[in-house]
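Please predict the structure of the following assembly.
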Amino acid sequence: MYRYDETDHTLIRERVAQFRDQTKRYLSGALNEEQFLPLRLQNGLYIQRLAPMLRIAVPYGLLSSAQLRRLAEITRKYDKGYAHFTTRQNVQLNWPQLEDVPDILADLAEVEMHAVQTSGNCIRNTTTDQFAGVAQDELVDPRPYCELIRQWSTFHPEFAFLPRKFKIAVCGASNDRAAIRAHDIGVQIVKNAQGELGFQIFAGGGLGRTPVIGVVIREFLAEQDLLSYLDAIVRVYNQLGRRDNKYKARIKILIKAMGAEAFAERVEEAWQQSKNNADKLTDDAIAWAKGFFSQCNYRSFDNTHTEALLQKQAGESKAFARWLARNSFPHRVAGYRAVTLSTKPTGVPPGDVTDHQLEAIAELADRYSFGEARVTHEQNIVLADVEQEKLFEFWQDARKHGFATPNIGTLTDMICCPGGDYCSLANAKSIPVAEAIQRKFDDLDYLYDLGDLDLNISGCMNACGHHHLGHIGILGVDKRGEEFYQLQLGGSGSEQASLAKVLGPSFSREEVPGVVAKLLDVFVERRLPDELFIDTYHRIGAQPFKERVYAKPS
Amino acid sequence: MPSPVNSHKTPAGPQPQNPAELIVDGAVVANDWHLLQLLGEDEPLPTVAALPAGKLILPVSLWLLLRQELLSRQQEIGVWLDSDESAELIGDHGAELPLIAIHFCSFADGRGFTSASILRQRYGYQGELRATGRFMQDQLTYLRRCGFNAFAFEGGAPLDSLLDSLQDFSESYQAASDQPLPVFRRRPLC
């Protein structure tokens, strides 16, 4: 993974000192609330319902075991002994004290971490595929480009006060696991007809109040032009994006208003002025960035032998077989698999892990996976390089720490925001809804029979739980001071991206699990053999689901 | 993107003031320029003869109308851009100007960062680039990196106390007006 050099260390140290001074000025009254707000936000600090919340950046989701151990220490020292993984592959602390935050940032800086630009109207943490570098469907590893984007976007002097937040995601594979079409900019690594590597650029995607699927604004961008072109997009947005209404300030609104073509032309005009400037990437810079991500310590295996061993172990233990089927992912190197640690056993808020679990992930990473782990945008953890021969042993270890729930990709592997239990924006709680659904659908055979099914829950229309991208989306709404839940169907964050549509009137929290059951009944009755929920929905439409859910009792 | 010239532009927000002192090139100095605010709705367009003597900073909308007539006073005529006016309005004519001021009607409105970058990078503007209005101390490093070298601060804080914030960061990742090369062109890469 990327390692800091003296430049990175200096910048992050100076940032900690800057924020220490800003916090001191705020506490002494020299900075007022309004002035301190953007400063603390650009250092990841929110003031929430019960306490401040600190969002720590995990660049494109990648963590070392040393970083995980430091996070565990921080949760013990400054918080309540747990942390929360977010859909931007970041980590949140729910209970820090404002006065402690400069010290927390200093502790993070020692392990090459920070909370820079995890909030505020600036370029946020760049996200990517959790299987980057190991997936079989990958053209090239997106992480070197993510790192180059991280450096370009961090403390960018021109883009720290944009009209609104700005999110970039990069995908290097044919299956989009990074939801790039739901980002302000989505970067898809492609090859053109001449076989040259480059990027297809999407812009104007986003969730929130006005969900939009991003559109292609450039079919092919040469590799060395990545940063100068991103710079041109953000520059045009900074000039023209609306600032009179925060709900209309995202780039998606600008692109809708101008039209994608006019927007692309405007970017092209700006880019022509700057494309040959110093931001143009050099071959050396690209090779240098790639050097940090080329894993060369793989052992070679006799695949026939390791596969036979796995089959035998799976034959002897149904529980292991289930876990292997759901929680492991094929690896491009023979003899290896990527493994997902589920943070979603029933009864635990999705994405939450304790300090001991953070240490357990570090331990597992050290023992089995080159000392690295990845946060996924579904709020789980991936260890990407586990030897197949050691999977059985790994599974036993993971189980001890509560990470082996074999539910990856199923209904109970939900994306869920912190909701009304923590968040001051939320209209409704989301964690208890997730738990009620997990309790109702605890039969693994039934879940496996349903197949891959994304269920996403947000506690308000800001959509941190990506409800628009759920095959089934649940949105908390406020009805005359009471919490209700709207059901939506048909969303997807994949390369076939689509936005879920509202099914009809909302339900009380108690009704939600029963409504989900009815939706699943319709699916099971109407599906073709092995058809997935999303495909059945697209084939038969919303009507059969509506009829069942809103049927009058006879 | 120059838009049609309108001598009576609506202000984007509170208009810039004329503080007695400001920071120029890292030092606190007396402000020897006088900034003319935007014309009020009923105010007639002034003639060149009616403009006060001495160093003047005119609204870009007014300057564009009077530009030819003002060429004889070149060394004492500067121009200011409102938060919603783009650098393209001045463009290459910046070479005629000893001073351009860019106004921040609120610290959260970051358009001025782009205006400054465009003037310096695209048009090669060399003169004084002055930030006016409601920017904050904590933005000084970013402002400096975008090419501002003068800061007509309107907050109450003594200007001396702000000087340190110009150097909050001694390093940078990106190319900008203060550093022509991004870090990937400066690092020993192998």
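The first strand of chain A starts at residue 45 and ends at 47. The mean pLDDT of chain A is 96.
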